[in-house]
């Protein structure tokens, strides 16, 4: 199959940009400045990459007006307000997704009462339990397991070896990447002289429209109430959200984050990599937490937090700066003491 080709002028038309240079130049690929060739479209996203741009062999480059006259580099340039956003429009055209082969693999196991609307793709060795319901155009990857009664809306993409336990309900356009586990029992035990007895979790696990969950991430079912992940929330790889966690809309939860049970998050909360959040607290709308921070208390809306234990980001940065100054002062004091000792 011949790969798609766009001329530089066609790219400019597609992204609403201003073309400088050869509009007839054919482009067949996208790539970074340092590995691009004459048929590749690249982008200059900011001033730190100007040197790489000057050395690049790319055919054409998306860039901002402030860089349109930069010396050196590719002479075919497409001026746009946001190069990264423009590139997102080009990628599906130059590198289209493979066509979906709809149908049910012969080795898939379909339980009694399982139903779907329209076309679906159910991969080899996938298992659909009793009374599973799928919307239109759902894709179920090889080895995925949807236990009894799981419900998924339209256009869901459930990757290889994903497990959706009973009580899981997915909205439309939910994407679960390989080996994610949704709706498993939470970590709940009643401890006593006889040991730790597991508490049965009977709540559900709801992922609203346009949620994405990364590989090897776990979103536990609720103990009594439901765990709920708000519409448009994106969860990275290796994240754990415990029982009864509820997020608002459009949250971003990065790699290595752990959120303990019954935490509530507002809309637009951002948890950077390896953040830890204790249970039974509330993070207000727009809270942002920097990487490797530990949150142990309620956080008001719009607050930036950092450190462990976390404090307001500005206070955390000031404390870190002061700590480094203290270390320098200690070195100076030790040097003075050493000199006095040398003088006897």
Question: How would you characterize the overall build of this protein?
Answer:
The longest helix is centred in the last third of the chain and has 30 residues, at 313-342. The mean pLDDT is 94. Strands 8-11-14-17-20-25-28-30-33-36-38-39 form a twelve-stranded mixed β-sheet, with helices on one face. A ten-stranded parallel β-sheet has the order 9-12-15-18-21-26-29-31-34-37, with no helix packed on it. Strands 10-13-16-19-24-27 form a six-stranded parallel β-sheet, with no helix packed on it. With 344 residues, it is α/β, with parallel strands linked by helices. Among the domains are: 6-94, Udp-n-acetylmuramoylalanyl-d-glutamate--2,6- Diaminopimelate Ligase, Chain: A, domain 1; 162-309, UDP N-Acetylglucosamine Acyltransferase, domain 1 (3 Solenoid). The radius of gyration is 26 Å and the shape is flat. It has four helices and 39 strands.
